[in-house]
Amino acid sequence: MKNSLCLDLFPNPGLPAQNKYQHFSKDMIKKKVGKEKELESYISEDSSYCVNPNMFALYDFKKEPLLGKYQSVIVDRKEGIVLSKRSSKAHFHDLLKYKLLMGLTFQKEIARRLGYKDRHVISTGKLAYFSIRGYTKASNDWVSLHLMDDYQILGNRSIRFKSIELNGVTYTFTFANCCRHIRSKIAESLRHNNVVFKVSNYHLKHTMGWPIYRLRGKKSLLDKEEYFTPHPAIEFFTMKEICADLMNQKHSKYGKMMAELFQLDFMKEDHKLIYRLSQRDDSLF
């Protein structure tokens, strides 16, 4: 049995079901991984791991490699506990470069239109990957909000997330050294993802004729509006408008780089005129 994300609704044997192994944190990983034989069957090594919807969380150990060589540890519903010699930045670089539409450009443009300056979330509408300290930082821990049911702010700038229940089994993921005001950053991230969903849905439904739907069954933080305030409407910008603005920004940057290369003054208005004249009407047909 699967939901609309093609996630198996039953717990996968990749993760242990014992209560003592249902509560993840960096301290827990340091104390148990590679030291308790009971956990060995759930651990694998894969430095080519790809970030995917089944990833619960990623803990970054770049500054102090686990067991002297692993820079990140991924907790995955299907793969279990994955040890990687690559950092969190490297894993998410692959996601942005090879899978995410327009990389971070589209993400940042949505955030700019919402007035958000901090960078914490990578949103697709149905998936949302949240960085604990902001993804502009070199070393970071990540949690998948689409697989989380709730969270609790702890003392000393720590936070604990509780996963959605899968056939009676839930896991918790604790992170230390969080950014300041993390509750508001989560709310902003959920709203960001909600707007991405609305923009994508509006475009696919009204332009492509392909309506998309929310998850069926278990609700995650993405669907719980008590954790964020949804934007009342998205008519103030559409997918086409966003792409057009990004294209304009790209050409403006190109003009500035060319002016700098040839040591010329960048004439903004002249550049706009040339760009406008280059947009031939017959290119629409």
Question: Which helices and strands, and how do they pair?
Answer:
Layout: E1 23-24, H1 26-32, E2 43-45, E3 55-60, E4 72-76, E5 80-84, H2 88-98, H3 105-114, E6 121-123, E7 128-131, E8 142-144, E9 148-154, E10 158-163, E11 172-175, H4 182-208, H5 239-261, H6 268-278
Parallel strand pairs: 1-11, 2-5
Antiparallel strand pairs: 3-4, 3-8, 4-5, 6-7, 7-8, 9-10, 10-11
Describe this entry's structure for a reader.
The chain has helices spanning 26-32, 88-98, 105-114, 182-208, 239-261, 268-278, and strands at 23-24, 43-45, 55-60, 72-76, 80-84, 121-123, 128-131, 142-144, 148-154, 158-163, 172-175. It contains 6 helices and 11 strands. The strands form 2 sheets. Strands 2-5-4-3-8-7-6 form a 7-stranded mixed beta sheet, covered by helices on one side. A 4-stranded mixed beta sheet has the order 1-11-10-9. It is 31% helix and 17% strand. The chain has 285 residues and is of the alpha+beta class.
